[in-house]
Structure formats: structure tokens, C-alpha cells
Specification:
DBL_dom_sf, 84 residues, mainly alpha
Length: 84
Amino acid sequence: MRNFSEEIQQTLDNWSADTCKLSELFPASFWSSYWQYLEDYVDARRTLDTLKATDDPVIDFLRLRQAAARHSPSSLLLLPVSPQ
């Protein structure tokens, strides 16, 4: 079984805009999880923006954590999809 980077490389080596679809490299379960993440991200981002606009104490708490962990409240929303 080839690994993911080999599959991507083969797709790029044989690239044709008419026939190649990068989406075929990912299993259906990935897309299901990813779409759920996107929907949740929009809601979380909206909530975070609302908290920032109202100077909610939660934002102060998150800023304290940011200093310790080096992640902003916004970047915490992206951690699940960021490369390690």
C-alpha cells in the first residue's frame, strides 16, 4: 500500500485538469469529518468574534492561555487541521 505523499506525487506527475481530482485521494470518511469541522468552525468563529466585541471575560482567559501556549484564540480553532 502506498503512502499518501506517494499518491499525491503520482497524481501530480500525471496531472490532467480534465481527468485528475485530488478529492479522490481522500477517503469518504475524511470529507464527512472535514465538512462537519467547517460547519463548526463557522459557528465557533462567530462566537469568538461576539465575545471579542463585548469584551467578555472568556477572551481575557484565552489571552492568558495564549501567552502560555503560544496560540491565539483564533489559532486554536485551526489546530485540528494544521500540520504537526
